[in-house]
Amino acid sequence: MDDKPIQRDADPVSGVADSTASHIPAASRAARHDVKADNFPQPGRERMICPQPISTLGTGQPNMERPLLARMSPNHVFMMGDNPALPRMPQAPKLLDFFRLRFSEITYRHLLQSAKTALDAGQDEKIVIACLLHDISNGAFLRTEHGYWSAQIVAPYVTEEIAWAIQYHQALRYFADESVGFKYPDAYNHFFGPDYEPPEYIQQAHRDARAHRWYMTSRLITVYDLYSFNDTVNIDPEIFTDLIGRHFKQPKEGLGFDNSPVAHMWRTMIWPNNFL
């Protein structure tokens, strides 16, 4: 694996590169303390963040919507727009901007390592780009049904085969395939317990995928998905720039602003704390 240091972007507020930044995405670093509040929307007021309803369902955590509504005043408003705790995105963000500025550290590392492992194994470029994108929903959107969400997020920008493979890798992860050396992940025994059985819709998705002409494209995602959680390896995302240019149709307006059927999903990752 390529372990050369990653060149960090300039600081999104000051424009000055941070030479002390660690080789992890900016979204996982603590918020800077020198950010001027008047450089952001709704200046001079406390901007309240209401947790997304789905994030607290079934957790026992209180729903904060009513208490926060009670706090509203001329000096207390709900956050809309850029959050100083997050790096600002470019006006026309590209795929790697989301990697650097929004994805969680685990997903950032995992996707880069997965794609690099497939690349080093000599896999076709469609496999490499599928590995680079397969868990994109885990980065800054939703973990639940991540294969389906990830496929939907990227569908307008990749081939139908790549989107299909990303969707079905979620189901295929639960089922071994000795022909490619894929075994049921030990991690799943720890995550869910050794007696866990996937629900019927996942089992049906597995059966459907096995009978499909693109089965192996999706199966190979699982092969490189399994062995890509090394926290000590740093991979420069720029090594995938040319491959992305060939296989991911980045809109000139920027992801989130091209009026595609999924633009709202990219905007949600740009402004995850918006009240509405």
Compact description:
By secondary structure, the chain is mainly α. Helices cover 41% and strands 2% of the residues. It has a domain at 95-270: Hypothetical protein af1432, CATH 1.10.3210.
Mean pLDDT across all amino acids? 88
Structural class by helix and strand composition: mainly alpha
Choose one word for the global shape: globular
Task: Determine the N-to-C terminus distance.
Answer: 42 Å
Helix content: 40-55%
Please count the helical segments: 13
Order of strands, main sheet, comes to 1-2
Global Rg: 20 Å
Could you spell the SSE succession in H and E letters?
EHHEHHHHHHHHHHH
CATH topology of the domain at 95-270: Hypothetical protein af1432
Percent of residues in beta strands: under 5%
Task: Please characterize this protein's 3D structure.
This protein starts with 45 loop residues before the first strand and ends in a 6-residue tail after the last helix. 41% of the residues lie in helices and 2% in strands. It has a domain at 95-270: Orthogonal Bundle (Hypothetical protein af1432), CATH 1.10.3210. It is globular and about 65 Å long. Mean pLDDT is 88; it is low at 1-23 and 27-34. It has helices spanning 53-56, 65-71, 95-101, 105-120, 125-133, 136-140, 146-154, 160-172, 186-192, 200-210, 215-225, 241-247, 263-270; strands spanning 46-48, 76-78. Helix 8 (160-172) packs across helix 10 (200-210). The protein contains 13 helices and 2 strands. A two-stranded parallel ribbon has the order 1-2. The chain is mainly alpha-helical and 276 residues long.
